[in-house]
Amino acid sequence: MTPKAYYVKVETPKEVAEASYEVLRQASRSGKVRKGTNETTKAIERGMAKLVVIAEDVQPPEVVAHLPILCEERKIPFVFVPSKDQIGPAIGIDVSTASAAVLDAGEGAQILEQVTQELARLKKPE
Question: Model confidence over 63-120: pLDDT tens digits?
Fold first, then answer.
């Protein structure tokens, strides 16, 4: 088991990570997705992102370390997933990507709602 990167604030259950990939898949087909850290950062800053998906295995970690902070400031839900190698294929590109933002979930709206509710539940203090 690899140690978690310092920017990973919440341990994401496997089901939530899988559901996040599914939201990306459906949003890339029928909605709107921004891929890569630069586009994701812009989507967050402009308040357009509905969900931000961040890979845990990014090297160097500083590439994505600012995303959770921006998301918290703007109250945008974000989720950590284990692998950048799964984000790319989920949004229909052949390369891995460190992060992606869902702007419009399209047909994935229901799954997006479930993911955001679960994330809110996970982040509540005990």
Answer: 999 999 999 999 999 999 999 999 999 999 999 999 999 999 999 999 999 999 998 8
Q: Residue 35: beta bridge partners?
A: 100
Q: pTM to 2 decimals?
A: 0.90
Which CATH superfamily does the domain covering 14-121 fall into?
A: Ribosomal protein L30/S12 (3.30.1330.30)
Residue 26's nearest CA partner among 90, 86, 114, 78 is 90
Closest listed residue to residue 98, CA positions, set 52, 64, 72: 64
Is the distance from CB of 79 to CB of 53 less than 8 angstroms? Answer: yes
Output the CA torsion sign for 114, 59, 93, 101. Answer: positive
Question: Tokens 């088991």 appear where?
Answer: 1
Residue 7, pLDDT above cutoff 80: no
The label of the residue with tokens 């850290």 reads 37
